[in-house]
Amino acid sequence: MFEWLQGLTPPASVSGPMLIAYVLMDIVIIVVLARILGGIMAKIGQPRVVGEILAGILLGPTLLGATLSQVIAPTQARPVLGIIATLALTMFMFLAGVEFDLSKVKGRGLQVGVLALLSVAVPALLGFPIAKLMHTAAFVGPAGEQLLPFALFMGAALSVTAFPVMAHILMERGELNSKMGSLAVATTGVMSVLMFSYISFAGTVAAAKGSSDFLVKLVLVVVFILVSWFVVRPILGKLYRRMFTNGVVSGDGLAIAFGGMVLYGLIAHQLSINALVGGFVWGIILPDDRALRQALGSKVKDLTMILLLPIFFAMAGFAADLKQITLQTLPATLLVLLGTMVGKFLAVAPAKGFGLSWNETGMLGVLFNTRGLLVLVAGLIGLQLQIITGLTFTIIVVVALVTNLMTLPLLNLLARQHKAAPAAPAVQEGSVAQR
To answer: 273, 257, 297: which is closest to 219 by C-alpha?
Structure first.
């Protein structure tokens, strides 16, 4: 059977009805495999997202080889799956924004700003010595011969915190709106903007476009956020007073919510801060009415969490080959992994002065170390611009997996030591908290 599978060859061209068939088949395979592996991970005390990432890796070249992986998901089908994955991520971050309680961070703007800035700046600075040690042909692409572009992209990879995965874990634990959880989510929301702005800057430097393009985008991001909060938010408040009655959202209200979510994802994508930030911002600026937010969230929760989100988490596996990690490349892998952890833990140290205990500060550092797949955004940009090699990209995938696997065990250890930490409430299968 295995020999027969190895003998299969990818289709030369896939289009029209055949492309639709492949995309639908791939969605079924990804969702089923992600559900199985996610369930296994949950039983051994890991978040389901780890199983969903592993599903993608099992379908990629690591296990099946490049040829068989292309048989399952041909080249022409992958961009379509990528678009679905982007929509899934935008919907999930919209859901996180809708469920996030802004009142939990009132009066903590300075704390959020300081932690967000440090959580990007400290790892970015660590990227320079790490890049210096790795600046060889094995890790550096043709456009990375100069140290600066390579160092900027390594710093970008180290600075990433996976907003969706971190929110995912907090939801699982029922801690999204706890003191520590609300600070983590608010900080990561600001951090995402800073992080993608930094990645945009790194891309601008690497492409030798000059600083003016980056500065224009930065100004546009600030304008986007200010207009959203001070103009769009009050308008939405007035509209939903007429569209939400007796606990029911009208059809027009749902159209505005979902259409706005996609529009904000588009705007954020065009501003180079990633569509996921747009989805979160849209969820945040909806009227501060918990009944309304719960009604809107219930409309997208199951579809996003069970069907669409696994596609997002599976996509990385198609682009990485873990067989490239050998004894010769292991030291560089460990170096990058050490840099990712040290940078984030150093950055959250000031949280102790913001009213958190050392245990809670440690938990914050663990959450910020969660890389998810967003670390691949920096990696893919570097790969496309030929700043890094496929080996460096695979190292980044390993970092994403290891940091995700570390998160829950470390959180549970710190939570047990923090006597005042409440236990996560029991929830039903399919709820956001259980996912």
So the answer is: 273
